[in-house]
Write a structure and sequence with these properties.
Elements: E1 4-8, H1 16-24, E2 29-32, E3 41-45, E4 48-52, E5 64-67, E6 72-73, H2 75-87, E7 97-100, E8 104-105, H3 108-121, H4 133-141, H5 154-175, H6 182-196, E9 200-201, H7 203-212, E10 217-220, H8 246-251, E11 260-266, E12 269-271, H9 284-292, E13 305-307, E14 309-310, H10 311-321, E15 325-329, E16 339-348, E17 351-353, H11 360-365, E18 367-374, H12 391-404, E19 408-412, E20 420-422
Helix pairs in contact: 3-4, 3-5, 5-6
Bound molecules: guanosine-5'-diphosphate, 6-O-phosphoryl inosine monophosphate and magnesium ion (MG).
6-O-phosphoryl inosine monophosphate binds next to helix 4.
Length: 429
């Protein structure tokens, strides 16, 4: 099997960026297939730390990187990110970065709407990243979005802006936002066009050719299954499908092209923003996990909520996402805990259930059923082989494999690129 699709299996920030960067060494092309600059990945290579958001995590290894049609792209943010990456010595140019011509633009008016809605939502707020992701996807599905190909055609662009503002005008008035001026948006986009158009291409063709030539493609997902607009903890989700099934539609290839599906799984659980979190710990242990795991959002700097590993949720993610193998990350953060708890089921009004119900009332009522495991006092940080792991850490990994219904094919033991234990090469999976 030549290709690999990487997705998050919890609520994001599982360490996808680190794993994709590491796997990119074995790939020829890396293509991002959904999300936008709500994603934030930290990748550590020796003494260098890279923060990526829209750029596929293959750029560090210098692989051909494609931002697929399924991504919503804030072009100004992308240009800033390219400049920052170039400043860190990464050679990014239209020769190795392609932006799908049918990808949707995120505009300042999308951010305005995101912010205004969240500010008014009170207790009902979602806790978005404020990057305009939801509103941009709404315009895409509403068939009024500006796409990158439109930047090459100023006359058509003018008509599209009028159409877009016919919708946003009413929303902005209702929310008390200042009127958006079409000529200002046109002007901004005309200035942007010469900077961004060199990257804009029919990405599906490039990808199709690469696949035909037998090149290895790595499909990069952002966010994670529990933030998926269908399968996540709706409405506390992002506005795209994050599961592996989206890789094909969001990149412009057939449903079998994605190859081996790899789910990234953190050894405990975190979540940023609002929404249910059955194993959340609001005590000293939760605080300790956050402190040791440096659990602060890459995009917004918000502290991430922390809790014990929830095997019920991950098993569900693995099932709906068709995950074949897991990468267990941040095992080292559990070093030194005397006992570890793993959620193996839920109690709901006296009954035991083994899945997350979709209704909000049920989600709020469930209580986790825990299994306790003995921790380990030795350090696993930086371990690169099974034999460097304490017996109890191995037991923990084995029990998780059993509970989630997928083998751990890779194990990550520090932020650094090379601190990985490989049991199976996903490209050979
Ligand atoms: P992503 O959004 O899934 O790419 O994950 P983030 O980059 O937002 O968050 C993961 C954080 O954990 C980053 O700061 C990584 O550098 C760090 N990280 C990744 N893997 C490991 C690991 O195995 N151990 C430790 N200690 N940190 C890790
Ligand atoms: P990566 O790729 C963690 C969360 C937000 C919020 C919800 C909706 O780094 O794992 P949005 O701005 O998308 O409308 O926000 O989704 N969220 C993430 N949480 N990691 C991410 O990406 C996220 N992207 C969005 O915090 O709860
Ligand atoms: Mg992240």
């Amino acid at each position: 099997m030549a290709n690999v699709t990487v997705i998050g299996a919890q609520w994001g920030d599982e360490g996808k960026g680190k794993v994709i960067d590491w796997l990119a060494n074995r790939a020829d092309v890396v293509v991002r297939f959904q999300g936008g600059n709500n994603a934030g990945h930290t990748i550590v290579v020796g003494d260098k730390t890279y923060k990526l958001s829209l750029l596929p995590s293959g750029v560090i290894q210098g692989k051909l990187s494609i931002i697929g049609n399924g991504v919503v792209v804030d072009p100004w943010s992308l240009l800033d990110e390219i400049t920052r990456a170039q400043g860190q010595g990464l050679g990014i140019s239209p020769d190795n970065l392609i932006l799908a011509e049918n990808a949707t633009l995120v505009l300042p008016l999308h951010r305005d709407l995101d912010g205004a809605r969240e500010a008014r939502a009170g207790a009902g707020k979602i806790g978005t990243t404020g990057r305009g992701i939801g509103p941009a996807y709404e315009d895409k599905v509403g068939r009024r979005a500006i796409r990158f190909a439109d930047l090459a055609d100023p006359e058509a662009l003018e008509v599209k802006i009028e159409r877009l503002l016919a919708h946003h005008g009413a929303l902005r008035a209702g929310l008390g936002l200042a009127e958006a001026r079409p000529e200002e948006i046109l002007d901004q986009l005309k200035q942007l066009a010469p900077k961004i158009l060199p990257y804009v291409k029919p990405a599906w063709r490039v990808l199709g050719e690469a696949i035909k030539e037998g090149q290895r493609v790595l499909f990069e997902g952002a966010q994670a299954t529990l933030l998926d607009v269908d399968h996540g903890t709706y409405p506390y989700v992002t506005s795209s499908n994050t599961v592996a099934g989206q890789a094909a539609a969001g990149a412009g290839v057939g449903p079998t092209a994605g190859g081996y599906v790899l789910g990234i799984v953190k050894a405990y659980t975190t979540r940023v923003g609002e929404g249910p979190f059955p194993t959340e710990l609001s005590d000293e242990t939760g605080r300790l996990l956050g402190e040791r795991g440096h659990e602060f959002g890459t995009v917004t700097g918000r502290p991430r909520r922390c809790g014990w590993f929830d095997a019920v949720l991950v098993r569900q993610s693995i099932a709906v996402g068709g995950v074949q193998g897991a990468v267990l990350t941040k095992l080292d953060i559990l070093d030194g805990f005397e006992t570890l708890k793993v959620c193996v089921g839920y109690r709901l009004r006296g009954e035991t259930i083994d899945y997350l119900p979709a209704g909000l009332r049920d989600q709020a009522a469930i209580e986790p059923i825990y299994e306790e495991m003995e921790g380990w006092s030795e350090s696993t940080r930086g371990a690169r082989s099974w034999k460097d792991l304490p017996a109890n850490a191995i037991k923990y990994v084995r029990r998780i494999e059993e509970l989630i219904g997928a083998p751990a094919v890779l194990l990550s033991t520090s932020p650094d690129r090379d601190d990985i234990i490989m049991m199976l090469d996903p490209f050979q999976g």
